[in-house]
Amino acid sequence: MKITDARVIVCSPGRNFVTLKITTEDGIYGLGDATLNGRELAVVSYLRDHVVPLLIGRDARRIEDLWQYLYKGAYWRRGPVTMTAIGAVDVALWDILGKAANMPVYRLLGGASREGVLVYGHANGTTIDETTDAVADYIRLGYRAVRAQSGVPGLTTTYGVGRGTMYYEPAQKGMPEEATWSTERYLTAVPPLFARLRETFGPDLHLLHDAHHRLTPIEAARLGKDLEPHRLFWLEDVVPAELQESFRLIRQHTTTPLAVGEVFGSIHDCELLIREHLIDYIRATVVHAGGLTHLRKIANLAEIHHVRTGCHGATDLSPVCMAAALHFDLSVHNFGIQEYMRHTDETDRVFPHHYRFEDGLMHPGEAPGLGVDIDEILAAKYPYERAYLPTNRKEDGTVHSW
Ligand code: GCO
Ligand code: MG
């Protein structure tokens, strides 16, 4: 089954998405998400200029071989641009294989390990009252797990707060916004938020929180400790995880479960975290961690170390990635939870899909392949618009992690 065509489609139905469409000699095509928020065109060029020429004429069924060929053949290993590009090829090939076999991808991955995929939504508000109301809205929609982010008194902007309740979009058109940050104010503001949420909603609701890479290990340890009485499902990205060893210190001080890895691109970014049981959930996802082929290897390593999966699923990951993630989540044994930030109606119309949400769980559907398509005529009506993620500075002007 030879690859005859591969095309990169860039569109912006509300936000930018990069999609790879690979077609084979018998007319079957597959899709892969290649969106890297704020750096989209770098992946477009990597694919168009360097990968597409290598694909033409190759057998679309040799998924593992093609993965290794693109990874080892580049010589320059890893990095978000490379891994996103390889991930897009890989996912498109799984989509093709599923369509050729007339099976949903999750069956090719070993079949369903569960009836549905537990997902969490994003509740946010400027104040604790507003955030509590937003959590209640999610519960009314059927969610069993909710991430809560609230404004920090004294700071004009806070990560995770603003621009829509059902739909949070951090990237902005034009030049990057500058947010302000104070670790002291943040560490004071978070525990009372979760005290209120636990008191209001009782013990059963799964509550999550994202510190978005902003603390030092000892600050992270303190936050984890302060949140212990409120029994979080997870505390996410407490420190920038380039230094995996830093989690040793955090782990010694707190039993709050830890999640990390949405920015990871390969197994080497989390190998020590997993092997030393320093985290509870690995957040690497299909689009940025080399596709289904590589993500399964990460999950398999995690399984033997009692680490579960918790794939990134923000709005900058397209419906193509969402579909692929759901096939992965349904099949992998050590699944934990899936993030689900709903896309706008515009985005959903450009990417018609079979996945569905019901009673707090999602299912990828039974359509052959991934069960997601792209309406190219509609997509062409939404051309690319430059957009950036915000940057961040401390109150004295020092650049800080956003
Ligand atoms: C999350 C993430 C997102 C990221 C975004 C960056 O947990 O969903 O932290 O909000 O900031 O995906 O592109
Ligand atoms: Mg996050």
What brief labels describe this structure?
TIM Barrel, ten-stranded mixed beta sheet, three-stranded antiparallel beta sheet, 18 strands, binds magnesium ion, 402 residues, 13 helices, binds D-gluconic acid
Tally of DSSP helical segments: 13
Task: Give the distinct bound molecules.
Answer: D-gluconic acid, magnesium ion
N/C terminus separation? 45 Å
Rg (C-alpha, Å):
20 Å
Q: What's the number of domains?
A: 2
Main beta-sheet annotation? 10 strands, mixed
As residue ranges, the low-confidence spans are none
| Second CATH tier, the architecture of the largest domain | Alpha-Beta Barrel
CATH topology of the largest domain: TIM Barrel
State the shape: globular
Q: Given this structure, which CATH class of the largest domain is correct?
A: Alpha Beta
Mean pLDDT: 97
- Percent in strands: 15-25%
Structural class: alpha/beta
Helix content: 25-40%
E-strand count: 18
CATH superfamily of the largest domain: Enolase-like C-terminal domain
